[in-house]
Amino acid sequence: MKKGEIYEGTIGRFDFPDKGVIELPEGKITIKHALPGQKVRVMINKKRGGRCEGRILDVLEHSSLESAENPCPHFGSCGGCVYQTIPYAEQLKIKEQQVKDLIDGVCEDYEFEGIRPSPVEAEYRNKMEFSFGDEYKDGPLALGMHKRGSFYDVVTTTECKIVNPDFCDILKTVKEYFEQLGTGFYKKMQHTGYLRHLLVRRAVKTGEILVALVTTTQEEVDLKPLTDLLLGLSLNGKIVGILHILNDSLADVVKSDRTDILYGQDYFYEELLGLKFKISPFSFFQTNSLGAEVLYETVRGYVGETKDKVVFDLYSGTGTIAQIIAPVAKKVVGVEIVKEAVEAARENAGLNGLENCEFIDGDVLKIIDELKDKPDLIILDPPRDGIHPKALGKIIDFGVDRMVYVSCKPTSLVRDLVVLQERGYRVEKVCCVDMFPSTANVETVCLLSRKA
Q1: How many CA atoms, within 13 angstroms, populate the side-chain half-sphere of residue 119?
Q2: Chain segment 203-254, per-residue pLDDT in tens
């Protein structure tokens, strides 16, 4: 097989997150954004060693799992969802099997508890980071998600099915305002332009909405008319804050050099499992509020008895897990690298009347040596890439009897499980929780116990 050659075949094996494999007499081809059972025509676009990666040119036959209707007009071009055409029950089976295959590859003699579904399949996301751009080079202004497989092109997603319609109404209003002004977007290669991102966060329980426009400082644009337009929208929820975030960094990420409040406040409130949480623009908070309740109930069940115990919640975000555990623990210590999230966690603990929570600002790798308390139990909820190897070693050195590992990327989880098992821990049980219907992502909760 050579780069540029074209082949036809049917997707057989299907690995996390959405990698299909075609097996041909000439060799194997791995294809991203495929579906199990699809017959496709692909072009080899990468060859590394003996491994070949292909790009889909045409879908010759649909998967037997796909339904006839496509509920989203953006599906296929938008890079956000991969399973829109597959019934939700089948999506769950795919994710469950993928995670089990990964765990089976590194663990023996553990209990696999299957997958728990999201309480809602549509309109579940409470946060979206929309990008400004164009759908093709020098095309009209676009605002939405990146086109599948493209770093530059953007698809305007005015009818997205995984968010509340409020998101789409806000997106349309912002896009039309800047179209009429003729304002340009920030071009990543030239480092010129004004419009970068539109961040929208909306609480499911309270309906409170925070809108943040992210731009460079290269132009001065009057945003008062836009603010008035947004406040005049007839929405299901209520806008409580409109922000202007200034960002001149070269990296294509949503960050703030300076934040101006155009209206209201720079935070909103959400509720989970009877607790109240204050959330700011960059605070980590699970993107599926109702699914988060299922996830945290699962975590609470795995944690078990905590009376008179000191619990470490490492990579604690806004302290959600810590505060759910705190009422039945002696003390909970949370460590989080995002300072803004730590400040929110401290305030949230006060809102919920929890006096046995301590939240520390810093990198787990560096802070862990400075912690004065000795944990009886450790909860791990790291970013997608998992735990830094040196940090994992220090965590293991505490020698706690039980750990609960919450992972949003099972491939990172299994890498860390290998080390944990080598260092004296046993995987007791594993459960998946689907927080991301229509996408390839899934949360995994793992209970580990120290071998005698």
Answers
A1: 10
A2: 999 999 999 999 999 999 999 999 999 999 999 999 999 999 999 998 888 8
Range of the domain at 213: 127-272
Is the pLDDT reported for residue 386 higher than 80?
A: yes
Q: Which of 72, 408, 431, 446 is catalytic?
A: 408
Question: Does pTM top 0.90 for this prediction?
Answer: yes
- Rounded to whole angstroms, the Cα distance separating 247 from 374 reads 41
Supply the DSSP string of 232-298, one letter for each residue: TS--SSEEEEEEEEE---SSSS---SEEEEEEE-S-EEEEETTEEEEE-TT----SBHHHHHHHHHH
- Any domain includes 413: yes
- The count of domains in the chain is 3
Quick one: which of 246, 279, 242 has its CA closest to 263? 242
Task: Report the pLDDT value the prediction gives residue 448, as an integer from 0 to 100.
Answer: 98
Peptide bond before 17: cis, by omega within 30 degrees of 0? yes
The domain that contains 365 carries what CATH number? 3.40.50.150
Q: In 3D, which of 180, 160, 159 has the Cα closest to residue 229?
A: 180
End-to-end CA gap in the chain: 51
Which CATH number belongs to the domain containing residue 37 in this structure? Answer: 2.40.50.140
Which of 220, 238, 272 is a domain's end point? Answer: 272
Beta-carbon count within 10 A of 231 CB: 15
CB 428 within 8 A of CB 108: no
Closest by Cα among 171, 190, 86 to 125: 171
Closest CA to 294 of 436, 164, 117: 117
Task: Name every residue whose Cβ is closer than 8 Å to that of residue 308 and which is 6 or more positions away in sequence.
Answer: 330
408 is catalytic: yes
- If you search the block for the tokens 């209201």, which residue do you land on? 264
The residue out of 212, 239, 272 marking a domain boundary is: 272
Helix (H) or strand (E) holding 30: strand 27-32
If asked whether residues 18 and 96 sit together in one domain, one would say no
- In the predicted model, is pLDDT for residue 91 greater than 80? yes
Eight-state DSSP code of residue 227: H
Q: How confident is the model at residue 67 (pLDDT cuts 50, 70, 90)?
A: confident
pLDDT of residue 400: 96
Q: Tell whether 263 and 389 lie within a shared domain.
A: no
Query: What percentage of the chain carries pLDDT values higher than 90?
Result: 80
- Cβ-contact 264, 340 below 8 angstroms: no
Q: How far apart are CA 351 and CA 346, in angstroms?
A: 9
Asked if pLDDT for residue 68 goes beyond 70, the answer is no
Distance CA 373, CA 21 (A): 48
